[in-house]
Amino acid sequence: MQVAALRDEVIGALQELAWEQWSQLGVSAAPPSDREERAADPEALLLFTLEVGRTDPRLFDEALDWLALNEGLISVHRLRNLVTDPLDRALVESALSWVARTRRRGRLAEPATDELTPLFPGLATPSADLDPAFAEHGFARALLQPSGKSQAPRLTQPIAFAFRMRRLLGVGVRAEVMRALLTIRADWLSGRTVTASAGFAQRNVREGLSQLHEAGVIDVRTVSDDRQYSRSYDDWAALLRLGDPRELPLHFDWISAYRALTRILRFLQSPGLDALSPYIRASQARTLVEEIEADLRTVRVPPEAFAAIGADFWYAFVEIARAAIRRTREPAMP
């Protein structure tokens, strides 16, 4: 399969995934026919969209319109925790600066406009009327005004469960801890599992778990020097006015999925990738897969299932990319 064909396939699938999620959270777009039964991860979704949206300006701009309206539902601390490289950081800080300017908070320094990177590489780079919030962080784009089309998420929808927890427990670690405990279907969860989903430092998660235990709403036990945590699905379902605990939304490891997919997308957009020899291209694909192997395994895409050697690894990489995308689209399972 040619690089260009795979790149177009991946971009189209990731754009569709982002639109499906955002359309059910209040962004102006037609929602999918099937309701998402898994709880979204808002900060992971936003970080993912800031990258995928560079291939779809309307997606990028409508996500920021939503953020300007619903800023109070987002944890900036957690969003910054999920940043993994300087490009992520620049995109996040650009978005936050734009929201601050839109909501008339603070003033932006006058940025230098030379050597700016086009925010949307597929579009002509504007030379005038640049948006200062993005130029301040190294990106060139036309001035962005909010569309005003976004709405607040409907908190009783399964996909918006994280926001419901934040309205109940505040925008902080306790809400993320309870989202993990209530959506991951297991009698007991290790502190490590909760920490991975919560997106906060281990120390903060441990403190949040301790506070919830002191409040009498979760249970704790120690097994071989490992603390494990549980909760009563029945009690929490009653608190949330659900008719049955099975109505609680399901969990999916969006952090790992989005992180792996973002790396795959960036790799496919690497300058000169199309011109490489089949062997070198396959070698670089193998290196990428080794780097994201932990995230692939977390979303149940074992790389060894697509074993190949030499130049043939490119075809294995095509199947790995497709499998990673497919895992994000599979129906939720309890």
Task: Write a structural description.
It is a single chain. With 334 residues, the chain is mainly α. It folds into three domains: 3-140, no CATH class; 158-247, Winged helix-like DNA-binding domain superfamily/Winged helix DNA-binding domain (Arc Repressor Mutant, subunit A); 276-329. It contains 15 helices and five strands. The strands form two sheets. A three-stranded antiparallel β-sheet has the order 3-5-4. A two-stranded parallel ribbon has the order 1-2. α6 (132-135) links the parallel β1 (117-118) and β2 (139-140). α1 (3-23) crosses α2 (42-52), α12 crosses α15 and α13 (278-291) crosses α15 (313-329). It is globular, with a radius of gyration of 21 Å.
Entry summary:
By secondary structure, this protein is mainly alpha-helical. 51% of the residues lie in helices and 5% in strands.
Task: Record the SSE blueprint.
Elements: H1 3-23, H2 42-52, H3 57-69, H4 76-81, H5 86-102, E1 117-118, H6 132-135, E2 139-140, H7 161-169, H8 173-183, E3 189-190, H9 191-198, H10 202-214, E4 219-223, E5 226-230, H11 233-239, H12 254-268, H13 278-291, H14 293-298, H15 313-329
Parallel strand pairs: 1-2
Antiparallel strand pairs: 3-5, 4-5
**C-alpha termini separation:** 36 Å
Approximately what portion of the residues adopt beta-strand conformation? Answer: under 5%
Number of domains: 3
Poorly predicted residue ranges: none
